[in-house]
Design brief:
The protein has a single domain, classed as Phosphorylase Kinase, domain 1 (2-Layer Sandwich), CATH 3.30.200. 18% of the residues are buried. Strands 1, 2, 3, 4, 5 and 6 form a six-stranded antiparallel beta sheet that branches. By secondary structure, the chain is of the alpha+beta class.
Length: 159
């Protein structure tokens, strides 16, 4: 995480983000703070993720577009960590910190273990291929609502 983002990431900002999803700040455990700041927490026996993305990395509209895409996949039975609504019934929220902001999303935690060299094998690769195929098939029917900004499509000239 760069120093600009680190300066914007105060306990007050994280607490405000948590309140948007009825989460107690004291229940959050920091997992990583690279491009996205990722916290985990539990509600009973269920595990969740709270993700904060600084505006210097991605603007709110881009994050919101991503979240609606992930929600579409979940609604179509693709195994993804689905985004969950805030107390305001939004899948993505904004927490302002000075001249910048964080886009905030709550997800269900993915079951299983983090991939590493120890558990990378032909079964893992086959499962990833199967899910990629499911995503590809499902993506052919995706049409975001007019209220969601469409993500930029980048074309690369192939010789």
């Amino acid at each position: 995480m760069n120093e600009f983002v680190r300066a914007a990431l105060s306990n007050e900002a994280v607490s405000e983000a948590a309140k948007l999803y009825n989460i107690k700040f004291s229940d959050l455990t920091l997992l990583r703070d690279n491009v996205n700041i990722i916290y985990r927490f539990s509600e009973g026996d269920k595990k969740f993720i709270l993700r904060l993305t600084h505006s210097s990395h991605q603007c709110f509209d881009t994050v919101n577009s991503e979240i609606y895409w992930i929600n579409f996949l979940h609604d179509n039975k693709i195994p993804v960590s689905n985004p969950l609504p805030s107390v305001n019934n939004n899948l993505c929220e904004k927490v302002t910190t000075g001249d910048s902001y964080f886009s905030v999303v709550k997800f269900t935690a993915a079951p299983g273990v983090e991939l590493s060299e120890k558990n990378w094998n032909s079964n893992t690769i086959a499962q990833m291929g199967r899910i990629t195929g499911m995503i590809h098939k499902c993506s052919k029917t995706y049409s975001p609502p007019d209220t969601i900004k469409k993500r930029t499509i980048w074309y690369r000239k192939i010789k």
